[in-house]
Amino acid sequence: MPWPSRKRDKGAAADKKEPDAKIAKTEEETQDKEEEEKSTKPPAGSSKSGWKNWKKKESDSGGEESKMKYCHWLLKSEPESRLEKGVDVKFSIDDLKAQPNQTTFWDGVRNYEARNFLRAMKLGQQAFFYHSNCKEPGIVGIVKIVKEAYPDHTQFDQKDPHYDSSSRKENPKWSMVDVQFVRMTKRFIPLSEIKALHLAHKADGGPLKNMMLFTRQRLSIQPLTQEEFDFVLGLEEEKPH
């Protein structure tokens, strides 16, 4: 039986160990509507230039699609119990491992920008599983996309904390993907360590200088460039900084 919806992104909760992320747990409906109007379906591929290339206009590249695209992801989920409308939204990487075939759907996203990222995911792409809104947030494992975006059924379930009465089955507003456990990272990679590197890279132009984990903290679905993914993955081989 599927777990209750827990990966909500109607304003992802700020990580408790991230003092700069003074973010409300929910976003206003007006902000969501503005995001819906402004958002465009992001590409999925590889990139070296970060967020600024995400919405690069065709005119900037002579009508050709930018070759700088994202092909990896970071997915936030809460490993500690928290009730939302009477439902425990807890879901850790161990909960994923306990699912049949270590696979299930990634539901409950209610932010238009994050939804568009979900819709851009391609079969086989890998993502970091990130424990969020807990005593020590950080990366704990790797998952892969095993089914591309399709309608999120929880938007139509009145008993689900992420029910959306404005969504219609003939034109669903929200999507989800299926993910499968790949492996645990060789060690826990804490937010504090990644943040220290991000700050250093902002100064010296390193690969984490534009990492969305710090520039778009609200989002529970975040794209990563190949360079960002490879650098963070390489941290598992090193002693904690």
Automatic annotation (TrEMBL):
- Protein's job: Specifically binds 5-hydroxymethylcytosine (5hmC), suggesting that it acts as a specific reader of 5hmC.
Superkingdom assignment: Eukaryota
Question: Know the name of this protein?
Answer: Thymocyte nuclear protein 1
Q: Which organism is it from?
A: Brachypteracias leptosomus (short-legged ground-roller)
Q: Which residues form the EVE domain?
A: 72-233
Subcellular location per UniProt equals: Nucleus
Annotated Basic and acidic residues bias: 10-28
Q: Which InterPro entries does its entry note?
A: 5hmC_binding, EVE_domain, PUA-like_sf, THYN1-like_EVE
This protein's GO cellular component annotations are: nucleus
Note whether Repeat occurs among the keywords: no
Cleaved signal peptide residues: none
Q: Which UniProt keywords apply?
A: Nucleus, Phosphoprotein
Please list where the region (Disordered) is annotated.
1-64
Q: Which CDD domains match?
A: EVE
